[in-house]
Design brief:
Length: 257
């Protein structure tokens, strides 16, 4: 029987997706892409899941798209299959996705981590966009999400030279939300997921949409979206509960958790 390319479980309302191609350093082939996307959609459809933690192994989050699967493809193969466009389904997931990243996060691996909403990493994590060494460029967001995350100067450095950066440099550059000891990366991501799990599910989804809107709109449009959405939250019982709990010095018990 062939090995499962991902492993999934639900722990305390946090859905975990673990990439599981250890012999290929979790290289992202088509099977793995479909499996990740379908698992994330299944978690989203489960009202008991509040957040998703996406992780790999100690040695590799993912060492990139599967070079062996791609190498012999023609332009027409890539263009007609719209290779890897299915990852867009992952960026459509409305639950927060936390990437717990150890080891190599290269090429498509770095790009997959950037599709997530936040990255937790350790000092030994290695991020990079080494596609230039293969005679190609990033194809899943490395020229776009990376530039938005760390700015043009550093994105140019990584994309043009293919050099890797460690977790500390990535955190300083703004790619990593929390830098923790390497052996605490997964547990920290789970703690973040559990913290989110105590909030209101619709409000969590709307908060994610509001932050994402900053990348898609002008400041004026974004501020209006935020303000109108803020107004709309006053239609929720969870807003009444949250504010009443504050006033009465108790912990909020959100209905739509
Ligand atoms: N694809 C396929 N196999 C891989 C990959 C990969 N990306 N990375 C590692 N492997 C395999 C190796 O071939 C090796 O297999 P085998 O044992 O059968 O020879 C096994 O994993 C272990 O790897 P190494 O022996 O190389 O391990 P090392 O510890 O010596 O080196 C490295 C680790 C530095 C991570 C090295 O494996 C490496 O450089 N890997 C390739 C990194 C890379 O170039 N990534 C970018 C790939 S291209 C990409 O991601 C484009 C994404 C956008 C596509 C969008 C299309 C529209």
């Amino acid at each position: 029987m062939s090995q499962q390319v991902i492993l999934t479980e639900t722990v305390d309302r946090v859905g975990v997706i673990r990439l599981n191609r250890p012999d290929a350093l979790n290289a992202l082939n088509a099977d793995l892409m479909y499996a990740v996307v379908e698992a994330a959609e299944a978690f989203q459809d489960d009202p008991n899941v509040m957040a998703i933690v996406l992780t790999g192994s100690e040695k590799a989050f993912a060492a990139g798209a599967d070079i062996k699967e791609m190498s012999e493809k023609s332009y027409i193969d890539m263009q007609q299959s719209d290779w890897f466009s299915h990852w867009n389904r992952l960026s459509d997931i409305r639950l927060p996705i936390i990437a717990a990243v150890n080891g190599y996060a290269l090429g498509g691996g770095c790009e997959l981590a950037m599709i997530a909403d936040m990255i937790i990493a350790g000092p030994k994590t290695k991020f990079g966009q080494p596609e230039i060494n293969l005679g190609v460029i990033p194809g899943m967001g490395g020229s776009q999400r990376l530039t938005r995350a760390i700015g043009k100067a550093k994105a140019m450095d990584l994309v043009l030279t293919g050099r890797m950066i460690g977790g500390e440099e990535a955190e300083r550059a703004g790619l990593v939300a929390r830098l923790v000891a390497d052996d605490e990366v997964f547990d920290t991501a789970m703690e973040v997921g559990k913290t989110i799990a105590a909030k209101s599910r619709p409000v969590v989804m709307i908060a994610k949409e509001a932050v994402d809107a900053a990348f898609e709109t002008t400041l004026e449009q974004g501020l209006l979206f935020e303000r109108r959405t803020f107004h709309a939250l006053f239609a929720l019982e969870d807003q009444k509960e949250g504010m009443d709990a504050f006033a009465n010095k108790r912990e909020a018990q959100f209905k739509d958790r």
